[in-house]
């Protein structure tokens, strides 16, 4: 039965502006202004031409008619990419107090939401108390008045934040992140794969580094998108503003820091892993078995005994921290219960001055304090000076310190130096110290027959770390920490609350509880990209690539030594080459400046990306070669270009 009350309601419609509404709009506003403003507002002329003055492109005017008679109007003005201004709201004085203003403002809010707005601004006058009360009821908050207030027509500003998600009110409104149309999703996915393959295949044709443009930087500072634009649009933005602007470490001429170049098969593996989306924590599933298998392969490669444990983590820094935690918790009794207690003597860790900064961070994170990292000087080849180490240890023990660990580096970040691992293993045995080897890239030299003798002694370490994303060419992020004593490893981290308890069957019956071996509980399926890469190409191929990078480093070093305008600044035991442009009669300070400029020009022109360091006080152009795409010709081109730039800069 029809509702008699509803029938008695006047027919109210809200219409959007058309040109023939102009007199209506002006009349409503004039009546309203005359009622409220003793002094004519400066924007009176605005009323005559709403299209031009009130509604910038993208805005809108709504008029509410009751039984065909206009009663109220509201105008929205576009005020930026994600913002609207409610620029006019007028209810005919004779029609006030009947809820028309509220209906119109609600319509305006809907309008802004539909267009993905994040806020609505109102600039108003405090004298309009009832209007302000209405805005506040609708959720507007009073905010600061902008200094750019366009028409000086306001003394108050209100703002409505539209970034609240719509509330789910009933089952019919439930939603999901799955695409509405899997066919569309498939088409987009195929396009992404095609584009990505083209992108990888054409890497050599692009400059190495392209700095983000001003437009990209601005775009990437936009506020959070509370309203989605669809995966297609998001992908377009990725293509326009993200993908072109990387350091270029997948390029054949990237040799900066120690950044891996990434194998294409790893790209696919990461995609497959993300689709499976397993939590590689304490469960009975294949991802756990894959990780255990990968760890086991590398346990053997590193010469660690059966019973050693391992864990995949994000990178060398996280791996070093994990290993040092095990060292500290194993070596110092009661550490997990009582914590660090330097009053009984400072706990100390020994490493060469060339040790990576992640070790200092680890020592600090472990609560030991920077002073606990005892840096030992190096010999001319940048390896730890064993005699200085022996003296420092004796001195520290005599002064009540409590040495517990020596960190050896297999491949220092500066020059690729390999500390004498076997001799350090002897020291550790004698002194009852934990030997940790930071082999972030160098330890993977164990795969290469020519390097294995240089790494002799690594197999005697208590722990070792290495990065798959460096010299195993895996996409970021993946590293591994191995600990000789699985028991010590587990004892350092194990916490087993009831909600993580294991059962004899079912999902919670893990082959190994990874959460007991590190700080992470939830973990991604990093192991898949290593597993697939090795299955696809085999260890021999990786061994060959490592050898190839070492040969390229030696080739570049030889080229530098043969070139009068170039100077080698450090020995090249592995894959890192340090050199500079030189010129007869130039001081070190002048050469530093020229070489700094050469480096920046190499990078900014997109020609190549080496990085830099300082060796014995001299600025060095530094190439760390963990790139499977580089060829010898790339290093010849680099040497030529450094000479060319150097001559030009020196002549300027
Ligand atoms: C010797 C060494 N140790 C540790 C690290 C840190 O590794 P990551 O950057 O993966 O955290 C590096 C990085 O270059 C390194 O060269």
Describe the structure.
This protein is of the alpha/beta class. It folds into three domains: 10-161, Aminopeptidase; 278-524, Type I PLP-dependent aspartate aminotransferase-like (Major domain) (Aspartate Aminotransferase, domain 2, 3-Layer(aba) Sandwich); 539-651, Alpha-Beta Complex (Aspartate Aminotransferase, domain 1), CATH 3.90.1150. It has helices at residues 4-8, 22-36, 50-54, 100-114, 129-137, 182-201, 214-219, 231-242, 264-276, 286-301, 316-331, 335-338, 357-365, 386-398, 421-431, 468-471, 486-493, 527-562, 588-604, 632-651; strands at residues 12-16, 60-66, 69-78, 83-91, 119-124, 141-143, 156-161, 309-313, 347-352, 373-376, 402-409, 434-438, 463-467, 479-483, 566-568, 576-581, 611-615, 618-624. Strands 1-2-3-4-5-7-6 form a seven-stranded mixed beta sheet. Strands 8-14-13-12-11-9-10 form a seven-stranded mixed beta sheet, with helices on both faces. A hairpin with a 2-residue loop joins strand 2 and strand 3 (69-78). Mean pLDDT is 92; it is low at 1-8. The site of pyridoxal-5'-phosphate has 15 residues, from helix 11.
Summed up:
By secondary structure, the protein is an alpha/beta fold. The protein has helices at 4-8, 22-36, 50-54, 100-114, 129-137, 182-201, 214-219, 231-242, 264-276, 286-301, 316-331, 335-338, 357-365, 386-398, 421-431, 468-471, 486-493, 527-562, 588-604, 632-651; strands at residues 12-16, 60-66, 69-78, 83-91, 119-124, 141-143, 156-161, 309-313, 347-352, 373-376, 402-409, 434-438, 463-467, 479-483, 566-568, 576-581, 611-615, 618-624. The chain is elongated, with a radius of gyration of 34 Å.
């Amino acid at each position: 039965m029809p509702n008699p009350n509803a029938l008695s309601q006047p027919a109210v419609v809200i219409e959007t502006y058309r040109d023939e509404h102009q007199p209506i709009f002006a009349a409503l506003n004039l009546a309203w202004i005359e009622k409220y403003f003793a002094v004519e507002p400066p924007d009176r002329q605005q009323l005559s031409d709403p299209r031009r003055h009130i509604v910038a492109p993208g805005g809108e005017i709504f008029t509410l008619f009751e039984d065909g008679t206009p009663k109220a109007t509201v105008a929205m003005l576009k005020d930026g990419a994600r913002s609207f201004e409610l620029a006019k709201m007028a209810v005919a004085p004779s029609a006030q107090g009947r809820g028309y203003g509220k209906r119109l403002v609600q319509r305006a809010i809907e309008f802004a939401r539909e267009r993905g707005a994040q806020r609505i601004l109102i600039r108003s006058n405090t004298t309009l108390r009832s209007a302000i009360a209405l805005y506040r009821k609708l959720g507007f908050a009073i905010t600061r008045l902008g200094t750019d207030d366009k028409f000086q027509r306001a003394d108050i500003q209100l703002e409505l934040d539209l970034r609240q998600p719509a509330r789910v009110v009933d089952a019919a409104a439930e939603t999901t992140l799955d695409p509405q149309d899997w066919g569309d999703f498939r088409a987009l996915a195929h396009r992404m794969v095609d584009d990505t393959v083209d992108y990888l295949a054409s890497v050599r044709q692009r400059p190495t580094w392209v700095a983000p443009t001003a437009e990209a930087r601005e775009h990437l500072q936009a506020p959070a998108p509370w309203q989605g634009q669809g995966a297609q649009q998001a992908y377009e933005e990725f293509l326009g503003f993200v993908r072109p602007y990387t350091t270029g470490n997948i390029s054949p001429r990237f040799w900066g820091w120690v950044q891996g170049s990434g194998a294409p098969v790893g790209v696919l593996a990461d995609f497959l892993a993300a689709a499976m989306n397993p939590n590689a924590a304490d469960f009975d599933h294949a991802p756990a078995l894959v990780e255990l298998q990968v760890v086991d392969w590398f346990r053997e490669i590193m010469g660690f005994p059966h019973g050693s444990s391992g864990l995949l983590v994000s990178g060398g820094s996280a791996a070093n921290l994990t290993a040092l935690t095990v060292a500290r918790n194993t070596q110092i009794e009661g550490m997990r219960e009582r914590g660090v207690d330097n009053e009984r003597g400072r706990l100390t860790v020994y490493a060469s001055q060339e040790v990576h900064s992640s070790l200092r961070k680890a020592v600090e994170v472990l609560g030991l304090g920077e002073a606990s990292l005892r840096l030992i000087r190096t010999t001319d080849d940048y390896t730890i000076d064993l005699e200085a180490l022996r003296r420092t240890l004796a001195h520290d023990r005599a002064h009540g310190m409590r040495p517990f660990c020596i960190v050896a580096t297999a491949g220092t970040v500066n020059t690729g130096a390999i500390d004498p691992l076997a001799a350090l293993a002897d020291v550790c045995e004698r002194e009852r110290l934990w030997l940790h080897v930071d082999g972030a890239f160098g330890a993977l030299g164990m795969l290469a027959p020519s390097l294995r003798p240089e790494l002799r002694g690594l197999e005697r370490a208590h722990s070792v770390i290495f990065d798959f994303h460096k010299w195993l060419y895996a996409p970021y992020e993946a590293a591994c920490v191995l600990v000789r004593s699985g028991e010590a490893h587990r004892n350092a981290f194990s916490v087993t609350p009831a909600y993580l308890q294991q059962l004899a069957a079912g999902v919670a019956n893990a082959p190994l509880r990874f959460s007991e071996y590190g700080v992470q509980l939830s973990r991604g399926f990093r192991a898949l990209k290593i597993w697939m890469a090795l299955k696809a190409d085999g260890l021999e191929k990786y061994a060959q690539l490592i050898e190839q990078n070492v040969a390229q480093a030696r080739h570049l070093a030889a080229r530098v030594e043969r070139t009068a305008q170039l100077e080698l600044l450090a020995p090249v035991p592995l894959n890192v080459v340090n050199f500079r442009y030189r010129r007869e009669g130039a001081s070190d300070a002048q050469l530093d400046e020229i070489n700094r400029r050469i480096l920046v020009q190499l990078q900014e022109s997109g020609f190549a990306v080496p990085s830099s360091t300082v060796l014995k006080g001299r600025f060095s152009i530094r190439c760390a070669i963990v790139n499977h795409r580089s060829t010898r010709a790339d290093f010849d081109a680099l040497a030529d270009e450094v000479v060319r730039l150097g001559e030009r800069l020196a002549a300027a």
